[in-house]
Amino acid sequence: MIPLDLKELTPPQRLLKTKALKRRLIPGHEKQPQIDSSLARRKAGFWGEQMLSTYLKQLPNDKYHIIHDLHLEHNGFHIQIDNILLSQNLILPIEAKNIQGSLYFDDQFNQLIRPNEDGIEEVFEDPRVQARWHRSLLGDCSIKTDSTCSHMII
For the NERD domain, which residue ranges apply (predicted)? Predict the structure, then answer.
């Protein structure tokens, strides 16, 4: 029987590199807060991908297959897709975002915004734009995706 995970989930290179940078950093370095913040975000992101993978693995492995962290190149564009769920009738790219707090989408500027308790807003790229771009590039490669399904999990 073919395994459910065609490509296993592994820690992202950026997470591993940020961990290595933190280990090598001199204590009290001026960049310490930025590196700590970056490492926390990357750990949270990978944790979210692990949780999503746990749920996806509950699907019947005779009907569905998962490819984690797929890298593609088409017409000079490089894309990375967190997960692709495959079946006989479906190719579904899935992007996972692990962001806590209240979130709202700003459609005018294609942003995802998280206000904190102090009223300061943290701005992220709108993951819906990323999902649409992935679907478009897969279509350019003559890979038909199901455009009626959600492609993002926050």
Answer: 44-154
